[in-house]
């Protein structure tokens, strides 16, 4: 329906204008099939989401500053988009990811995950199979990525020629381009104590994973980061369709 970056920018402007003026207005961007996770609490359906926003007690006309955005065509297909943004909101750093699905001449939010760092617990509201899948994927991915360049190269099997990865605002498409970029990235140590949110976008066939944590390079001071994965079932395993990574600068 349009360029992902153009659509993403227009969507964020409209959504945040409604949310920050009066939180209850944000419910208009959701439908019955929508899922929202805010600070670890997950609710489903437009009515419940609208009630959740109304009960948050957010002040009207809250101040917000977007510092970075990424927009990709989602591996879900059918015109769906993955939008990721970071910024400052009500005095807090926040990270938010949206899965937008076309409806009529516009989009609705099928999935939204937002973290502002007040609640530091992981509250999984998905089937146990999705929790185990996520834990296994995260453990495997970061152990390989942090294990050195030879170990990192083993992640190649998780990507395909249609995989899309955005790293600090630059997008790489396809296994070869992604792995070449990984060779250039420094060796890091990711703190295993991450905030994790999980949405089953299409049962266990497509799963959205959001992570917020800390990493260090060569033992230097830890830096905060946020990362999203949209993984999809392929045969008896999973591949990464979409991925974003951003450091959270104060």
Report on the architecture of this protein.
The chain has 2 domains: 113 residues, Nuclear Transport Factor 2, Chain: A; 124 residues, Nuclear Transport Factor 2, Chain: A (Roll). Strands 7, 8, 9, 10, 11, 12 and 13 form a 7-stranded mixed beta sheet that branches. Strands 2-1-6-5-4-3 form a 6-stranded mixed beta sheet, with helices on one face. Strand 7 and strand 8 form a beta hairpin. The protein is built from 5 helices and 13 strands. The chain has 250 residues and is an alpha+beta fold. The mean pLDDT is 93. Helices cover 25% and strands 44% of the residues.
Outline:
25% of the residues lie in helices and 44% in strands.
Largest sheet: 7 strands, mixed
Strand content: 35-45%
Average predicted confidence as pLDDT: 93
Domain count: the total is: 2
User: CA-to-CA gap between the ends?
Assistant: 34 Å
Helix/strand structural class: alpha+beta
Stretches with pLDDT under 50, minimum 5 residues: none
Envelope shape:
globular
**Element order, helices and strands?**
HEEHEEEEHHEEHEEEEE
Compute the gyration radius: what is it?
17 Å
**Per CATH, which architecture of the largest domain?**
Roll
Oligomer: single chain
- Helix percent band: 10-25%
At the first level of CATH, what is the class of the largest domain? Alpha Beta
For the secondary structure, the number of strands is: 13
The CATH topology of the largest domain is Nuclear Transport Factor 2, Chain: A
What's the tally of helices?
A: 5
């Amino acid at each position: 329906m349009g360029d992902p970056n153009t659509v993403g920018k227009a969507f964020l402007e409209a959504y945040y204008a409604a949310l920050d003026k009066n939180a209850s207005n944000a419910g208009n961007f959701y439908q019955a099939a929508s899922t929202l996770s805010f600070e670890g609490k997950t609710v489903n359906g437009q009515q419940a989401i609208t009630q959740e926003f109304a009960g948050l007690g957010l002040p009207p006309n809250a101040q917000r500053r977007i510092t970075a955005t990424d927009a990709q065509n989602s591996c879900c297909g059918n015109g769906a988009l993955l939008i990721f943004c970071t910024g400052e909101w009500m005095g807090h750093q926040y990270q938010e990811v949206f899965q937008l699905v076309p409806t009529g001449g516009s989009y609705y939010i099928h999935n939204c995950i937002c973290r502002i760092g007040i609640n530091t617990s992981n509250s999984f509201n998905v089937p146990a199979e999705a929790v185990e899948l996520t834990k296994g994927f995260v453990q495997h991915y970061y152990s390989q990525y942090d294990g050195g360049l030879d170990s990192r190269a083993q992640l190649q099997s998780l990507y395909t020629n249609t995989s899309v990865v955005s790293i600090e605002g630059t997008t790489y498409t396809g296994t070869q381009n992604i792995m070449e970029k990984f060779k250039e990235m420094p060796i890091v140590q990711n703190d295993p104590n991450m905030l994790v949110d999980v949405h089953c976008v299409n049962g266990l066939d497509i799963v959205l994973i959001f992570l917020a944590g800390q990493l260090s390079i060569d033992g230097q001071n830890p830096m905060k980061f946020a990362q999203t994965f949209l993984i999809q079932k392929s045969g008896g395993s999973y591949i990464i369709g979409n991925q974003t990574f951003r450091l959270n600068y104060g």
